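## Example record

The block below lists the input lines for one assembly entry, exactly as stored, with component labels intact.
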Amino acid sequence: MSTTTRQEPLDAAQRGDGHFVWRFNIYHRVTHALVIVSFLLLAVTGLPLRFSCAVWSAPMIRLMGGVEMAGLLHRIGAVITFVYFGMHLAYVIRALVTSKDRMKMLWGKESMVPHPQDVLDFIAQFKWYLGRGPAPRFGRYSYMEKFDYFAVFWGVAIIGGSGLLLWFPEYFAAWLPGWAFNVATVVHADEALLATGFIFSVHFFNVHMRPHKFPLDEVMFTGRATREYMEEEHPGILDHVDRLATERPDGPQAQDHPAPPPSHTQSLIGATLGFIALAIGLMLIGMIVWAVLFC
Amino acid sequence: MNPADRGTHRAPPILIRACALAAVAVAAIWTAQPASGQTIPDGGCGLCHAELELLRQHAPNLAEARRLVTRRADIDASAHQGMACAECHTGFGRYPHTAGPTAVTATCQSCHEEQTDPWTAGVHGVLGDDREPAAGCSACHGVHTVASAQDLVADHEEGQALSVQCVSCHEARALPAMDPHADSTRCADCHAPHRTRAVDDPESWVAPALQGETCGACHEENAEAWRVDVHGAAVLGHPLPRPGEDHADDPATSHEDDPAAGEDRGGGHAKQPVDAGAEPATCTACHGGHGVHPVEEDRLAGNSSAICEGCHSDYAGSYLDSYHGQATSLGSRAAADCAACHGSHEIYPSRDHRSWVGDERLLETCQTCHPRANASFAAFAPHVDHHDRENYPYVYWSYRLMTGLLIGVFAVFGLHTFLWLGRLTLFRGADDGHGDGSGS
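Predicted C-alpha cells for the full assembly:
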C-alpha cells in the first residue's frame, strides 16, 4: 500500500505510480456510453410502470410528461439498445474473423470468455475474504467483469426479446400463443428488476464504491489506467503489460499498450458523466428498495 | 300619526280601491269563469290585508302585521289565481273577525289530497315534537305566492327552482356546479316531490331497487341495459339467464343453481368475483349521487378500475399488476380500463354469450384497441395470477424461475459485496489490503 500523503486523484484509475496503460479502446467506451444512456433511460421510464403502486411513480411519470411520453422514451431507449447490441455483435464477429491469434481471444488471461480459472478465482476471492488465502490474480477481465458483460448480453436478449413481444403483440401473436405475452410480461419486469438492481448495487460497488475505488473509476471513460491500478486490479496480465511497455513504448492505441495520461478535460468529462450516472442509479436503487419494502 | 290625518290621506285610495273592487266583481261576473266565478275573489279582505299600516294598528306587533299582509296581485300571479281568500281561510266572516271555532285555515289536503297523502307518508310529513311537519306544503310551494309544480319547473332558469327551496334546508346536499345534473335536474326528480323518503328507506326513489326507474327516467337506454346485466340482475334479484337464453323469467335458469356460476373464464378458482359484503351495484354505486362527473371527465371514462375495485378487489388486483392497469393507474386513458373490456351497462359473466369477454365476443373486444389482434392474441390472460399454478402454469413457472434467479444472484453477489467491504475495512490485514493477493 502506498504510504505517500500526496493528494490522490478523484479518478481511481489515475491513482498510484507508473505509466498509463490502454485498457479500453474508443469503440468500448462509446458502446459503454450508449449502454449507460439507454440503460438509465429504460430504467427511469420503466421502473415507474413496474412499481406503479409506489408513491414516487406517479410524480415521476408526470415529470416525464405522462405515460405515453414515458412509453415513447422507453422505446427510444430500446432502439439505442438494439443499435449497440447489433453493433457489438458485428464487432465481435469482425474481431474473431480478423484476429491473428483467435485462441488468445477465446482463452487465457486476455480473454473475455469465461473459463475454469474464473470459478477458481471466485472461490479464491471468498477464501481471501475469510483470510484463508491470497487474493486471486485476475487477468485482463476478472470474473466480475465477465459476469457483468454476459449479464448485459443475456439481459438485452431476454429483456429486449420480451420487450419486442410487448411492443408488437399483434405481430407476434401471429405465431406465438397467448400465454407468451403473459410470460413476456413477467420475464421483462423481473429481468429488468434484476438488471437495474444488480448494476446499481453490485456493479456500482465493485467498480466505484469499494475502498481503493471510491468515489469513481473513470477507466471506462478515459480508457486508461496507471500501472499500479493494473497491478491491483489485473495483476494476471502485468507481465504482458510490462513486456509491451518495454518492447513498444510508443505502441498503438491498443489494449495493454502504454498510453499517455488522460488530459484534464477528458478526466473532467469522465467525472461529470460518471457522477451523473452514479447519482441517477443510486436514486433508482433507493426507489426500488422503497417500492419492494412498502408496496 | 292621528286617525283624522290618516282618514284625509287615505280617502282617495279607498275610493279607488272600492271602484277597482267593483270593477273586478263586475268583470268576474261578466266573464263568468265557470269554476270559480261565483264570488268576488278577496271578498273585501284586501281592504285591510293589503295595508301594512292599517294592520299595524290592530296586530300585536309589526312582525304579525307583516305576516297578515296579503296582496291580491300575488295570489293572482300564483297557481291559486282567482281563488277567494275564504276558500282557504274559512269561518273568519266580516271584520272584526270573531275568532270562533269555525275560523280555521283549511289545509292544502282539502283540495290536494293526491299530493298530501304521499307527503304524509314521506320524510317531510313526519310531525316533530312541536306537532309541526318537518317540511309543510308552504316550505316548498310558498303561501300566497303558491307555486305550481309547473311554475317550479319553469322558474328553474332564474334560480327559483324547487331545488332552491330544498337547498335552503339541505344546504350540504346542493349539487356542485361540475355535476351535469346541477343545470338540468331538480332534487325532486330523483328524491320524489311529495313522497320524499330518506335515502336509506327502501321506498326512496334512490333506493337500490328503484334507481333503475329514477335514473332511467332520463337515462333510459342505460337503465334498460343495466336492468338485465349482472349488476342489475343482482340488485333487482332477477335470475341471470344461462348462455343462449335471453329471458330471465324462468326461475330454473337462475345462476344460483348453476354449478359453473362461481367459475370465471379459465376457471380462476383463486379469484373471488365479488367481494363479500359488496354494496349493491346500483347507478350511484358507480357514478356517485351528488357530484357526478360529466361523462367526458368521469372517473369512469378510462379509469373505471378505481370504482370497480371497490367490489372486485381480486380482479382489480390482477388488473393493476398488468400493463393495462399499471398504465391506467399512472394516468393513461388510452390503456384499457375495466369498462373497456367488460362494458359498463351490459356486463355479463364471461360464460354468457352477450358478455364482451365471453368466447363469442372477446376477440371483437380486443380488436377495438388492437385492430389486428387474432385468436392467439385474445388468449392472453389479462387477469393472470402468478401464484395460480393450476390455471396459469407458464406464468407460474416463469415467475418462479425469475424469482429464483433474482434471489440467487442477489444472495451470491450480496454476500460477495458485503464480505469484500468487510475485508477492505474491518479486516484490512497487514498482508494484502489491495486485493492483488501478490503480497507485494
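Residues 393-424 of chain B form the longest helix (32 residues). Chain B touches chain A through 59 residues (CB under 8 Å).
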